[in-house]
User: Fold Transcription factor FapR from Marinithermofilum abyssi.
Amino acid sequence: MRLPKKERQKQLQLFLEAEPFLTDEEMARRFGVSIQTIRLDRMELGIPELRGRIKQMAQKNLDRVRSLSLEEVIGQVVELNLDHSGISVLEIREEHVFARNQIARGHHLFAQANSLAVAVVDAELVLTATASIRFVRPVRLGEKCVAKALVTRQTPHRTQVDVQTVVENETVFQGVFDVYRSKEDK
Amino acid sequence: MRLPKKERQKQLQLFLEAEPFLTDEEMARRFGVSIQTIRLDRMELGIPELRGRIKQMAQKNLDRVRSLSLEEVIGQVVELNLDHSGISVLEIREEHVFARNQIARGHHLFAQANSLAVAVVDAELVLTATASIRFVRPVRLGEKCVAKALVTRQTPHRTQVDVQTVVENETVFQGVFDVYRSKEDK
Assistant:
């Protein structure tokens, strides 16, 4: 049963607070309405489209990356708390997929996760030592990969970072990165 | 003690048969002579420089890659025995390194190894499931990474491929890739 418009807009706002990377397509599916309806809802509520929301998030809540230039991070960093956590978003475009089947090549997901794992570490020199990764399901052209990194262990010279990448709340990639960081920075 | 020229050229040929990816620099070091001397030796012996040797190898001894387009493999494939083994070479250029320290970014080494692991599998559809990798030592601008892949286990739908990447016989990267392949191709 469809919700009345007022109720739908209220829920839509709550959804987006909880999951800011929801696409219009996914919201349309959840509410059983057209994408156009969701777009109108967003306009009435003054909520920018996903790309705009990502940009907004990237402008606040962002520690300065120390180990890399920000443009060396693969994907757009939208949240960064050094030595704690970070989030980045990578949209899968033509250059990321296999010509044959439009599935994203694994090394791009790896690059997003690995560079985010390095970016969250609060040191000048950070190098990846080991990684254990799992490609949970194929990612396709046009999908938006949201990688979430969490520092799970710190010793004087090493940091362990767990990264989980989701597409619309479905896990597509998991990785545990063990990185060295230079002594003088801790 | 330096070897006489004749003896050096004989050994140089033997070295290159055993290790075709030796650079002139490394040979010069081994023989305690200048790089120019090695170049002259090669010219006298009619042995092309490394780049030429790689091209020669790429033209023979190469099964047809089934799972990818050959140009989708990162690095140049110089040997390929489907469902058995493969070798590729990646030269680290400006676009592969961190601006700050000229060290190769990990995801390029990962991409070389992962795409080679996929290329050696004799099936139309091959997707990486998991990988365990280790960056053994940093790789720098200008170094030539030789990745060697070996199929170590086969079950009806999965193949395990071990990849070891060396720079002048020093291991820089190790990875174990577990890949799915499509049923109909086995």
Remarks:
- The CA atoms of residues 73 and 115 of chain B lie 5 Å apart.
- Chain B touches chain A through 27 residues (CB under 8 Å).
- Chain B has five helices and six strands.
- Strands of chain B lie at 76-81, 85-91, 126-135, 144-154, 158-167, 170-181.
